Amino acid sequence: MRSLPQHMQVEASGGRHEDTYPIGAQGKKSSLAHNGQALYCERVVDTDQPLYVKDSRLESDWAGNEDEVEFGLSNYLGYPVRGPDGEVYGTVCALHEDAKKYSAEERAALDEFRKKVEAQLARDLK
């Protein structure tokens, strides 16, 4: 996901939910959303910290968020992606419809993917 001033935008997508998040799709950031609730990826960008939500339906900060309501995705793991200038560019993330714990290996794999995305950005945004 790429962070734009008013939206989070899908830059790449894969897996079972690829059709849910087509490239170019955008979600309004919390200041523009009808309920003022932050998107998962928006929180990662704003805090520059990874975010894990085991089950949004059981967490008051996340219950009723857009991904849960619109797409049935209540589980999230995401990491900030920095551009070559060191600023947060966006996120890499995994979403799931069921409560899920991520193993150390799964977390490491997503973090390795984050590093690859940052390397690609460094080449593309010179």
TrEMBL record:
Pfam families associated with the record: GAF_2
InterPro entries: GAF (IPR003018), GAF-like_dom_sf (IPR029016)
Region of interest called Disordered, as start-end residue ranges on this chain: 1-29
Domain GAF: 32-112
Coiled coil: none
Classification via SUPFAM superfamilies: GAF domain-like
Domain of life of the native organism: Bacteria
UniProt-recorded name of the protein: GAF domain-containing protein
